[in-house]
Structures are given as C-alpha cells and as structure tokens.
Please model this.
Amino acid sequence: MLNYDAPLYRPPSEARSLIFQVTLGCSFNECSFCDMYRTKEYSERPWDEVKSEIEMMAKYMPNTRRVFLADGDALNLDANYIVKIVKYIKEKFLYIERISCYAMPMNILKKTPEELKMMHDAGLDMLYLGIESGSDVILKKVTKGAIGKTIVKSVNKARDAGYVMSCMIILGLGGRTHSKEHISGTAEVINACSPDYVGALTLYLENGIKQEFLDKFGEPFIRINDDEALDELEDLVSQIDTKEEIIFRANHGSNAYTIKGTFPQDKEEMLDKIKWMKQHPEIMRPQGLRGF
Model:
C-alpha cells in the first residue's frame, strides 16, 4: 500500500477519497495560524514515483470514485504535469467521479485561464481554497500571502474555468479587537465570488504555532470566547447576501456550535437556529472534543 510522507492532511469531505501525494509540504508555508506542513520542506514528486503509485492503487482499489491530490500545494505544479497526472488517474480508475486538491490564491492567479481550463478539462474538478478572512488588516497580521481582492479574483477565475470551489473561513481569526471588520470583510469577499461551498472553522492554535501567531499579529491578541464565536457566526450569516447557491457548513470539529444550510433559501432558518442555540448553551461541543 501507499507509504505516505507524514503528516498527511485532507479536507473533511475527502474522508473516503484515495490520496496521492504529488507534492510534499507547502511552497508558501508562512501562514501563522497553520502548522500543517512546518516539518516538511516543499518538494514536487517525480513522475515515476507518482505513476507507480497510481498503478499500484488501481490494482488494490479499482472502484475508487474520488481522488485527492496532496499535500497542501498540488496546484503549484506545472499545469502540463497536473494534466499528465489527472489523465493517468482517469485512465487507470474507470469509476472516478471527482479529483480535487488544495489551492492557494497565488497558485490560481499565476495559472493562465487556458491552463486552468486545460487542467479542468483533463479531470481536475474541485479546488479547496482558504479565504480565512476578508479583512486585509487581518490577512496581513496572519501572513496569509493574499488580500481580499486577490482572493475574490482567484475564486472567480477558477469558477470561470469550471471548477467547483470550496472555501474556508476562520471564526475568531481577528480576535476580539478586530471581530467586526473580520466578519464584514469576510462576508464581502464571499458575496463577491459566491463559492459553491463555504465552511466555517474556529481558530485553534496548536502549541507549535501559537507563539509565532501571537508575535506576527503585532498587537495583543484577545481570543474570543464561545459566545462571541456564535455572535460572529450570526453576523456572518446575516451579512452573506447572494443570489447564487452557496452550501454553508459550520460543523467542523473546531466549532463550539454547528449549523448548516444553503444560501439564499436557508438563511433565515440558519439565523433562527443560531438564536435558539444562544438560549441552549448545553448543546455546545465540549472543549476537549474540539480540534483544528
């Protein structure tokens, strides 16, 4: 079977997907809230290794329907190399329904529209992109390597090429001081690009990254509590205004409270659910069961 280069990460919705590590680590690796790939030096795996693994797993798991390309930076690969990988996966796995990977805004923007379309036509269907926040102030403080405008531009560029876009935001990323601008900016970005999916997580600082986050933030960081996180969630849902459908999920393991629905039709129902949760704190997920 596959001998993964640990640690290995994938989105929650890829829990049943076959994962091929076509890159190792992250070429940027400076976001202060993320320590997923801090133990790795970024590298791109050669075709012979990737090809061999695809062939091996096609024998073991011929009925595979979903494939996720890891690590955190598969889209940093040359477009022609991605096409080569994706086409071979589709050749060897006859029942493939979806191939996906993580995507940073900068990696989408440095691909031409023709390259993005070429990769999509070859079989790369879905991209996972971290918005994190729509506030340029906060994005700079957490060294995201993008601003709101470039995030919107990258999501729209990918959607124009045919990709399904699944985006993540992080409640509490601006702390108590920047809570309002964090949520208003994030809603503004979402409204400007209408991703197919939006997932809300809650900031959870691992011990290995906590001090770096606090140092880079540049001012005292006051963490929001669970009630304030629910307030942020309510404000975000209230401010998302789109005519296009967005499947919204706030059920990640880092969240104290969970909701789900589809904009625009479920907006009021989600707001009613949040109001109800504020009156029933006993349904909160215990602190010990949360994780980023």
Summary: Residues 129-286 form a domain with the Transcription Regulator spoIIAA fold (CATH 3.30.750.200). The mean pLDDT is 95.
